[in-house]
């Protein structure tokens, strides 16, 4: 289990992290979401020991991190760190050797990863001659070469085509199934929603929402109702309903936002007064919609909670 406990980091007057806390459980795919400059990379660098926090702590399996524990982590930085003129096989073998693997084991592990990512036939080419997507695959292989107990990946899907995204997703899901926690940041929120068990959303260095993806979607403080009734497109049946706001209408389909204290049964009664009600139910937000809400108006989101499976 990885735990970030009230991490704080300042750069002069800029507060990059403001008591950031969340927990990543074993075997959990965890999405770390925020705009550029929100503090994601700073938090990841602190976890990996590449930067120091001004306050708070990072713990792995209940213990404070040191160099030995971090050596078992796999890290993929946003600013890629490959040697451009070195062939992929030689480069990965070298990195595996740095992690203590014998030369035969290192060479075998490098070859297996390159085969897994479809790069066996280009293993002896300098990395700079590969496409950006293939360089991305080699970078991920570098993070996996020593069979890490935790993966920290900063924008790992950036620049990948759909086939590359699928290949990377498959590898990460295999690691999760083996009990390895995987933390990755991404601006592709549809991908985060599809892959992740849980997420943390940060804004200006502060946690504004965290929890399981399904849990966050159902904790929306201002629920949205989809009502299909025989009102003939009229909106007068909504008159007098307190705390109800019309978001949109398409024929006899109405999207209504309810205040926290609004009574959905009054809405149902009003809809029934128009005739038959063909649909009446809550519309769950996508992760993208939820992100926009909590970033633009954090007060609209449920209070941040601990992440649980």
Descriptive labels:
single chain; 309 residues; alpha/beta; Rossmann fold; Alpha-Beta Plaits; 2 domains; six-stranded mixed beta sheet; four-stranded antiparallel beta sheet; 32% helix; elongated; disordered C terminus
List the helices and strands and how they pair.
Blueprint: E1 2-11, E2 14-24, E3 29-33, H1 40-47, E4 55-60, E5 63-64, H2 67-70, E6 73-76, H3 88-98, H4 103-116, H5 132-144, E7 150-154, H6 162-177, E8 182-185, H7 189-195, E9 198-203, E10 206-212, H8 213-218, E11 224-229, E12 244-250, E13 253-258, H9 264-272, E14 277-282, H10 287-296
Parallel strand pairs: 3-8, 3-9, 6-7, 7-8
Antiparallel strand pairs: 1-2, 1-4, 4-5, 9-10, 11-13, 11-14, 12-13
Helix pairs in contact: 3-4
Structural description of this entry:
32% of the residues lie in helices and 28% in strands. With 309 residues, the protein is α/β, with parallel strands linked by helices. It has two domains: 216 residues, P-loop containing nucleotide triphosphate hydrolases (Rossmann fold); 62 residues, Alpha-Beta Plaits (2-Layer Sandwich), CATH 3.30.70. It has a six-stranded mixed sheet, sandwiched between helices. Strands 2-1-4-5 form a four-stranded antiparallel sheet, with helices on one face. The protein has a four-stranded antiparallel sheet with strand order 12-13-11-14, covered by helices on one side. β7, α6 and β8 form a beta-alpha-beta unit. The two termini are 12 Å apart. The C terminus is likely disordered.
